[in-house]
């Protein structure tokens, strides 16, 4: 079996964690989830998770006790997060929740909670229990892999029964919270494979090699953005060549050797979405022969710089210096009504150190820029701007619409069924802001567009 760590090291590319878990020979145990269970768990405030929490179990390979600590920590915080999401779905208008797609997401969360409840009744103190728990984590990640695309279609179909403002608030909260839940589960899965007791499941890495690995779970402490950019260029370029017969190119300038500590899966999703937009723009403008310029600039990513970037992107500035707001991480939970902290309150997830190094990536294209009317709608979820015929095509799945680049909407956001629904840029911003970064767009209509991606590293890990 290919080790998770070896696969993850492949040019910094993200990996699907669930594919590396051996098939479970027996079904996962479940327990009926009652309304009382949901109310009890949702009454608990969301755990103030820090990135130090994700790394506190030590550098791989993990000992048996460190592995148990990781499992018990994960188990302690996930049930309440799932319960909060169930309540937020139930707080939607009944006719919206009754939509088959929205109902499916509700049922998926109930299912995942039902798999955690039997394990939550005891403490994980044996390898047998830890293996069972990791299988449950893999099931959770797989079950919710298409949450965004299913929700998108559900809200398309129910658009007459819920306002644009209500949908935007729900999705901003729900999808950002999903990032954290998925991150917590995937982190333990990755630590599972990098533990001493389970090294036999990998391809035989010895302790010395793993000690020098740059990964701690899903966090790459030596991530090189230039490598991710090149991977995304290759993928998006192939789609362009197949659909349009041309392949735009990019020119990386600045400091391409810059490294930061970050999560490759998140960065690849962001850059794929940004390059899709630039590639499409230059193709439609007929300027694809002129390379798209990408500048990589290492920066301290101070709180003031992060605040300035978010202001440019039209987002609120955070009152607390060095903090990532609860809004950024979907921990406000207005939808369920069970947890309403101050939107500018201290973060649930912080960088490991306040002065973490960061990087700014500027993507500059000559694609004609963005029209003023579209610029105002840049951060809206796409379904709110479709005309009725386009919406009906998206709902029925019959539309070929949007062009070849619409097929590129996978990654941690969820599969190609997101194609053309306009979720890419808002979601990319959510992933950037999750760790205190941001996306700012400056457009000169008739000429081109500059996109600034600010990334805060998750911190130096000793």
UniProtKB/TrEMBL annotation:
Report the subcellular localization: Mitochondrion matrix
According to UniProt, the name of this protein is Protein-serine/threonine kinase
Which GO biological process annotations does it have? regulation of glucose metabolic process
Gene Ontology CC terms:
mitochondrial matrix
Q: GO molecular function of the protein, one example? A: ATP binding
Q: Which UniProt keywords apply?
A: ATP-binding, Kinase, Mitochondrion, Nucleotide-binding, Phosphoprotein, Transferase
Signal peptide span: none
Question: What is the protein's major site of localization?
Answer: mitochondrion
* Enzyme class (EC, first level): transferase
Q: State if ATP-binding is listed as a keyword.
A: yes
Entry similarity comment: Belongs to the PDK/BCKDK protein kinase family.
Keyword Lipid metabolism appears in the UniProt entry: no
The Histidine kinase/HSP90-like ATPase domain, residue ranges = 262-459
EC numbers listed for it are 2.7.11.-
Output the superkingdom of the source species: Eukaryota
């Amino acid at each position: 079996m290919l080790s998770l760590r070896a696969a993850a090291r492949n040019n910094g590319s993200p990996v699907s964690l669930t594919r590396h878990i051996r098939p479970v020979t027996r079904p996962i145990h479940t327990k009926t989830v009652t309304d009382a269970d949901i109310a009890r768990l949702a009454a608990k405030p969301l755990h103030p998770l820090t990135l130090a929490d994700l790394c506190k179990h030590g550098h791989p390979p993990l000992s048996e006790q460190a592995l148990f600590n990781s499992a018990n920590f994960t188990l302690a915080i996930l049930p309440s997060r799932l319960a909060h999401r169930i309540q937020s779905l139930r707080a939607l208008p009944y006719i919206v929740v009754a939509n088959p797609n929205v109902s499916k997401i509700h049922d998926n969360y109930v299912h995942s909670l039902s798999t955690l409840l039997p394990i939550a009744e005891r403490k994980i103190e044996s390898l047998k229990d830890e293996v069972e728990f990791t299988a449950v984590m893999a099931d959770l990640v797989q079950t919710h892999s298409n949450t965004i695309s299913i929700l998108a279609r559900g809200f398309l179909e129910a658009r007459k029964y819920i306002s644009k403002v209500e949908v935007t608030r729900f999705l901003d909260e729900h999808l950002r919270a999903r990032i954290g839940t998925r991150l917590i589960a995937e982190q333990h899965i990755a630590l599972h494979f990098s533990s001493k007791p389970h090294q036999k499941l990998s391809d035989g890495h010895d302790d010395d090699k793993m000690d020098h690995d740059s990964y701690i779970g899903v966090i790459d402490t030596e991530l090189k953005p230039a490598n991710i950019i090149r991977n995304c260029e290759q993928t998006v370029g192939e789609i362009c060549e197949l659909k349009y017969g041309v392949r735009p190119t990019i020119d990386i300038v600045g400091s391409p050797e810059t490294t930061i500590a970050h999560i490759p899966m998140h960065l690849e999703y962001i850059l794929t979405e940004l390059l899709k937009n630039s590639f499409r723009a230059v193709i439609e403008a007929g300027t694809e022969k002129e390379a798209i310029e990408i500048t990589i600039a290492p920066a301290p990513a101070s709180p003031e710089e992060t605040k300035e970037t978010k202001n440019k992107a039209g987002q609120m500035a955070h009152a607390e210096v060095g903090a990532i707001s609860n809004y950024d991480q979907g921990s406000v939970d207005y939808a369920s009504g069970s947890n309403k902290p101050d939107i500018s309150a201290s973060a649930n997830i912080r960088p490991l150190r306040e002065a973490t190094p960061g990087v700014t990536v500027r993507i500059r294209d000559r694609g004609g820029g963005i029209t003023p009317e579209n610029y105002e709608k840049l951060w809206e979820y796409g379904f709110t701007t479709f005309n009725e015929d386009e919406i009906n095509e998206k709902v029925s799945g019959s539309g070929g619409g949007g062009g070849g680049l619409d097929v590129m909407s996978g990654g941690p956001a969820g599969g190609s069924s997101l194609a053309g629904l306009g979720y890419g840029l808002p979601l990319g911003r959510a992933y950037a802001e999750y760790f205190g970064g941001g996306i700012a767009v400056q457009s000169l209509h008739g000429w081109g567009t500059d996109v600034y991606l600010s990334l805060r590293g998750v911190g130096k890990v000793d």
